[in-house]
Structures are given as structure tokens and as C-alpha cells.
Amino acid sequence: MAAFVLFALVILTGAVWVVTLRNLFRAALSLGLVLFGVAGVFLLLEAEFLAFAQILVYVGAILTLLVFAIMLTARAPGAQPAATSPPTKYGPISPGTFGGGASRQQGPAALAAAAVFVLLTWATWRLPWPAMPADHTATLPALGQRLVTAWVLPFEVISLVFVAVITGAVAIAAPRRGRQN
Amino acid sequence: MSVQLVLALSNALFAVGVYGLLTRRNAVALLLAVELLLNAAALNFVLFGRLFNQVDGQAATLFIIALAACEAVAGLAIVINLFRTAQTVDADAASLLKG
């Protein structure tokens, strides 16, 4: 229980930092905190493989990618809190739009988020949940077997999705011929 | 560790992600908020897999992680292209379909 409370605190603190910090680089590092916390909860729920997959894929790959995106676009107006606004190709942007955390309508947004939380928790809290079973039979061999039997179609489709995403990313992000940049 | 507490945690994570989606302007920050939403969903899948002694919950979570990677790659490509065309990463400023 103590471990769960610790992980929950880590997750919630990190999550609030992710959405509020003005410095996007710090927000990305806070996302790493959240991901580690979620991996810890996975461990508590006896999903060891997923916990390590989470750290490997999320923290190792996705977070690195996002940090790359933040660094590549750091010069952009709107990426960093800036006092002056260099005019872009499409004309100057009003100073109100600057800052990575620059936001609009924080009050209504906070209200909406709180409403989502209260609604979901109210709907789930009063349900008669069964007690958590003491022994967990979902082992890693069972997971692997399930992946290539019942889940084999999604398993194959996701390989196609990977190919499509990689091709699409290269097609979108590759420099065009005949352009200045 | 009761079911309700883990559910409340994942609900809170989801709500914070919704707040981020609503308030952020930077396109990369929006991607960060989406990762929060995906993690909240993954947490629920693992919890219910554990609760009902099914391995399917973990299988679904694996797919969530894989799709999150896809989403990050595609989003990054779009953001970089947007940055190259419009010199901004403000999601509100991207109002053109062809640049």
C-alpha cells in the first residue's frame, strides 16, 4: 500500500507538471517521471513484462523522440516564452500566443477536467468490485501464447501499422526537392 | 491496494491529460498530454487483467504502448513539417491545409 501511495504521488505530481510547466523540456522530463510511476504500478499489479516494456519503449524511445521534437522546434515562436515576436511567413503572431505553457481558458479547462474526474470516479467507486485474486495466473508464457492465438490478427495488423507510420513519417518529414529549406 | 484507488488514480491521470489537451498551444505539448491519456487507459487494462485473472489485459496494453510509439512518430513528423512550412509549432497557427 505504501508503495502504491508513493507511485501515485509520483504519477500525479509528474502529470500536473507535464501540463503546467512553461519549459517544455522540463515538461517532457516530468512525463518520464509519470512513465516510471506507471511502470511501478504495473509491477505492483504483477505485470512485470509490461513494466519493463513500458520503461524500454516509453522512456527509452518515445520520450527520446519527444525531446528531439522539442529541441528541433525550440527556436519556433510559440515554443519558448519570448517577449518579442519575430514575424513569420504568415505575418506576426500576437504576443498572447507565446510560451510553451501559454494557455487559454485555464479556468473552464480545469473545470472540465475536474468534471471528467468526478464523473468517472463517481461511476466506478460505488460498483461492487470483486476482491483482487491472491494468485495471478497471467504469466509471460501465457501472454506470448495469447498474442499468437487469439490476438494474432491485431498482432499482424500492428506490424502493417508500423510500416505505414514509418513510411508516412519519412514522406511527411523528408525535405522536399526544390525547396529552400 | 483496492480496485477503487487504482481506478481513481487512472481517472485523475486521464483528467490531467484532458486539462493539458484543452490548455496547451504547443503541438509537442499536446503530444505529451496524449501520452498521459494513453497511460491512464493502459493502467486500467492492466488493472482489470489482474482483477479478472485474464492475460488479455496485458496484451491490450502492449498494443497501447506500440500505438503510442506510432502516434509519437507520426506526430513528430507532422510537427517538424509544420515547423518547416510555417516556422511555428503553435497548433492554433496551423490553419492552412496547404503551405
Give an account of the 3D structure.
- The complex is a heterodimer of chains A (181) and B (99).
- Chain A has two domains: 1-81 and 98-112, Four Helix Bundle (Hemerythrin (Met), subunit A) (Up-down Bundle), CATH 1.20.120.1200; 139-176.
- In chain A, 64% of the residues lie in helices and 0% in strands.
- Chain A has helices at 2-20, 24-44, 48-72, 106-125, 140-147, 152-173.
- In chain A, helix 1 (2-20) runs antiparallel to helix 2 and helix 2 runs antiparallel to helix 3.
- Chain A is globular, with a radius of gyration of 22 Å.
- The relative contact order of chain A is 0.07.
- Chain B has 99 residues and is mainly alpha-helical.
- Helix content of chain B is 78%, strand content 0%.
- Chain B contains three helices and no strands.
- Chain B has helices at residues 3-23, 27-51, 56-86.
- Chain B is elongated.
- The mean pLDDT of chain B is 89.
- At the A-B interface, helix 1, helix 2, helix 3, helix 4 and helix 5 of A face helix 1, helix 2 and helix 3 of B.
Topology:
The complex is a heterodimer of chains A (181) and B (99).
Chain A: H1 2-20, H2 24-44, H3 48-72, H4 106-125, H5 140-147, H6 152-173
Chain B: H1 3-23, H2 27-51, H3 56-86
Helix pairs in contact in B: 1-2, 2-3
